Amino acid sequence: MSHHILVLGIGNVLWADEGFGVRCVEALHQHYEFPEYVTVMDGGTQGLYLLQHVQTASHVLIFDAIDYGLEPGTLKIVRNDEVPQFMGAKKMSLHQVGFQETLAAAQLTGRYPEHLTLIGMQPEELEDYGGGLTAIIQAQVPKVLDTGLAELLSWGVSHVSRTQTAEHLSPLCLSD
């Protein structure tokens, strides 16, 4: 398969539900193994530093906390052309500005993913510095992982459960 698939969690784990996307990719990495053409990445708040990774991917699956103005814990999936508008709909933090710019830059360079899916979670609490995910959001993570795995499967990506816990997923290293 000539595809390169990027599974990206973005957000800031220091601010309560803002860390949702990163916590999702950490859990995926810990519990599942994917083919070698799949990169599971903690994108943190890197913004434009993620550009090279987005440009080389044929498919990008993003997990993020998005303020859709819905009930906390509501999952909303948007695909392809709709993704950039939701990434910038209501800025919750600087990382969303950065990631919207990353998508725009990838489009300008003509190296844009064929398939783009955003699995967004309506957060409950963003202001709790040092706090983990709220209980309502934490409770949604298993369902969210199943949703992500189903999306990957629709792209032809299989997974296997790990028999032992994986090494911790390290945040994106910018020295590469």
CATH class descriptor name: Alpha Beta
| Helix and strand run | EHEEHEEHHEHHE
* Approximate shape: globular
In what order do the strands lie side by side in the largest sheet?
A: 3-1-4-6-5
- What is the CATH T-level topology? Rossmann fold
For CATH, the homologous superfamily is named as HybD-like
Please tell me the CATH architecture by its name: 3-Layer(aba) Sandwich
The overall strand count is 7
Q: How many separate helices? A: 6
Number of domains: 1
* Terminal CA distance: 25 Å
Strand content: 15-25%
Detailed description of the structure:
This protein is an alpha/beta fold. It has a single domain (5-161), classed as Rossmann fold (3-Layer(aba) Sandwich). It has helices at residues 20-31, 51-55, 83-87, 94-108, 135-138, 141-154; strands spanning 5-10, 32-33, 38-44, 59-65, 75-79, 115-121, 160-161. The strands form two sheets. The protein has a five-stranded mixed β-sheet, with helices on one face. It has a two-stranded antiparallel sheet with strand order 2-7.
Short description:
This protein has 176 residues and is an alpha/beta fold. 31% of the residues lie in helices and 20% in strands.
